[in-house]
Amino acid sequence: MEGAGGRSGRVGNGPVPGGRVSAGPARGGLGSAARAWRLPELIDAGMYVVDDRGLIVAVNAEAERLVGRRTADLLGRNAHELLHRDSRGESIPSIRCMVKQAFLSGRTLQSELAWFERGDGSLLPLAWTVAPCELAPGERGAVVIFHQVDPAASPGPWAADAEGPLSELDRLALLAETTTTLTSTLDVQEILRQLVRLVVPLLADWAVVDLLTEEGGVARQVVVHHENGGLVHHEDLERAMPPVPEASSMPLSRALRGVTAALAGPETYRGQPDSALAVVQQELFQATGMHSASIAPIRGVRETVGALTLGRASRPDAFTRSELLLVEDIARRAGLALDNARLYERQRRVAETMQRHLLPQLPSVPGLRMTACYRPAPRASQVGGDWYDAFPLPGGATALVIGDVVGHDLDAAAGMAQVCNMLRAFAGGQDDPPHAIVDRLDQAVTRMVQPVMATMVLARLEPGPSGRWTLRWTNAGHPPPLLVEHGGRARYLEDGHGLLLGTGLRAPRPEAAVELPPGSTLLLYTDGLIESPSRILDEGLDRLAAYAAGLAERPLDSLCDLLLSGVRPGDNDDDVAMLVLRVPR
């Protein structure tokens, strides 16, 4: 691939290679950069435009014909992932995408031979030019012009395949993508997966990650080999490791102590091992057949996190000192990402522990079965305001409570604890109906030092003389309870609905009552079980009712887990609390 100096064109307002491009009316659904550009129809060349994320925002008719794909199938798609392939038809690491390199260098780049994948899976040999441009003020993009060529007649240079030496531009792109990719998640396993994907097979055919545990030990978390075009985990080599020796001069020991990166090979470990860790490394080289390896410390902000070993077995070339510096730089970036992820996990564990200690133990109510559960937000590191409660009332009745204080932070958790304690105090003092208790609670909430807003359902459950159970409740802006009868009929208890707590508005609080049939199941839940940013609330309610109806006969102990796995939307980033009650037949 060769680069030629050139100025960026401005799409729609200035010249670009091959002609002028002007903006048409906006096209919805493809993001802010996905406008309907009117591209010139070149005689024998395809042309498309991508935004700064690599998404196609415009395409001409000749490009449609050459790649065998309709415009509708191209717009909004990542051009590199969709089209760019090597001579074997395999995906190319994104760092070797010429569009990305044009962005990084700010220059027009050309290649005399590359390949796109057509819509039918065949390969299109082509020559192409990529020029950075400006889609709109402050909005960068690139124009790609390409035409079909004969590979046998092309003098090269050929576009780089997945393996081979890296140019300086390749290295710059790799480090940029490493930073962007690894810092986009706070999940340790996802960071490790992405780290391996970035360096194998680009730099090596083996990748090994050893991490220091919080208890001071070492765990070999990842051993991955590039085999037959894919990545294969060797779980037999992933295991707990011996402790790090303080005096060992072996490369892995020094890396795990955060000393330095080093090159290694089988000869490094042929002598008498100086530690149990060296013995394990000796076995690793024998099992993998690596003839050359780069071993670099993975350093966090405060301490060493682990070590990254990249090895070559099938590739004949050995690691160079220059490549070792690159591996060390990649490991440093991985260390910052892993350090952040570990800190996040510690905060998450503390938050979950705190939240669970704020939640009560359920009472034993003769003649009833009851269970409850709480699940924290999937991607939140802070405590939330969801809670459930159940406690005895004067006169032999039982209070059932489900609630949600607005917010996902320590203030919400503190507010939840105060509301919960005040509710118990108001309910336990005298035998009042639910609406009167919640009305007093609402007045108290507005007088708190830090006022909160909350939704909740307070229900009073009491046995009748015939052995039937009566549920009397009031609802303060909360999703309605769900009653599932023994035969599977499900219905929401939508009566008794009033204002949420903390608004400062005074209005009569309604109350409703229902007799619970024998064998029925009552479900109180928070909105994290049903809400999704991608669909309306009614869809979530319908899904919950349909799913719960099919679980009418399932044991109560497993009901919460089944509802969470079957109903909770995958894109919901909220806590979930549930309280489930079943009346025996």
Automatic annotation (TrEMBL):
Q: Where is the composition biased (Gly residues)?
A: 1-17
Against Pfam families, the record matches this protein to: GAF (PF01590), PAS (PF00989), SpoIIE (PF07228)
Top-level taxon in the UniProt lineage: Bacteria
Q: This protein is called what?
A: SpoIIE family protein phosphatase
- What's in the keyword line of the UniProt record? Hydrolase
Domain PAS, residue spans: 32-102
* Organism the protein comes from: Nonomuraea bangladeshensis
Task: Return the CDD domains for the record.
Answer: PAS
Region (Disordered) spans which residues? 1-27
